[in-house]
Amino acid sequence: MTELQSVSDKLDNKSEDKLALKDNDKVICNNAADEYFMGIKEDLNQAERLVSDAVNNLVINFRYISKLTESHHEMVLAIERMTAPEASSSINELLEKQMVIANQIEQELEMVITSLQFGDLVAQLLAHTTRQVEMLNVELQRIDRQGAWQGETERKALDSIHSGISKAVEVVKNKSKKKPVVQQGMQMGDVELF
Amino acid sequence: MAKTILAVDDSASIRQMVTFTLKGAGYEVIEAVDGQDAFDKASHHQINLILTDINMPRMDGLKLLELLRKLAQYKNTPILILTTESGDEIKAKGRAAGATGWLVKPFDPKRLLEVIGKVIG
C-alpha cells in the first residue's frame, strides 16, 4: 500500500506539475502575445498620429502659400495696369516674367494637392494592418482558452501551442479583407466615366 | 448661380483638398464626413453633383449611392466615386448601384475639374 501510495503521490505531483506548467505556459503565452500585439498596435497608432499631424501642417502651409501666391499675382496685375503705355520694354518684360512665374507656381501647387493625399492612403493602410494584428491576437486567445494542448508531456504541450498559433494565423488569413490600397507611388489615378 | 457639390470623405485632408480645388473653380461645396452625414445633408440641400469615397464608417459610399438613387430628387444627379479602390469587381458594383464615374486616388485637380465640367458644366 505504501509503495502504491508512494507511486500515486508521485503521479499526483507530476500531474500537478504538468497542470502548473500548462497553466504557466498559458499565462506566459497569453501575456506575451498580448503585450506583443499591444506594442504593435501602439506603433501603428503612433504612425497614424504622425502622418495625420504632418498632413495637417502641410495643408495649413499649402493654403497659406496659395493665398500669398494669389496676392502676389494680383499685385503684378495691378502694377501692369498702373504702368504707363510708354513704359520701357524692360519693365514690360519683367512683368511678363512675373506672370510666367506666377503661372508656374500655380501648376506646382496643383501637384501639391495630389501629393498631400498621401495621408489618406497611409491612414487606410495603417488601419488595415491594425485590424490584422487585432484579429490574430483574438484568435490566439481563443485557441488558448480552448486548451488546444491537452498533451501529457511538455513536448506535446509545446507542439500543441505551435499548432494552435499556426491555426490562428491560417484563420486570420482566410478572414482578412482585401488590402484597400495597392498604389506603390503617388502617380495620379485613372479616371473612368461610365 | 454657382453649382453645389457635396464632397463626402472621412479623411479631413481629402475633404480639404477637394474643397480647395472645387471652390477655386467657382463651385459651392458642402462637406460630409461619411455616408450618413452625406445623406442627411443631401436631403436638406439642392445638390448638383455628389463626389464620394467608398470606405467610410457608419455608411459606406455604395450604400449612400443606393439610397440617393431611390430619392426622386437624385435619380439622375451625377454621382462620382473617389476612392483608393480600383478593382473590376468593386467598379462593377458601383456602376450597378448607379455611379456616374470612378476616380482613383490620388486625384489630379485639373482632371477632377475636367470630369466635373463634363458632367455638370
Automatic annotation (TrEMBL), chain B:
UniProt source species: Nitrosomonas ureae
Keywords in alphabetical order: Phosphoprotein
Pfam families: Response_reg
GO biological process: phosphorelay signal transduction system
InterPro entries (UniProt xref): Bact_response_regulator (IPR050595), CheY-like_superfamily (IPR011006), Sig_transdc_resp-reg_receiver (IPR001789)
Keyword Phosphoprotein: yes
Domain of life: Bacteria
4-aspartylphosphate modifications at: 53
Listed name of the protein: Two-component system, chemotaxis family, response regulator CheY
Gene3D superfamilies registered for this protein in UniProt: 3.40.50.2300
All copies of domain Response regulatory, residue ranges: 4-120
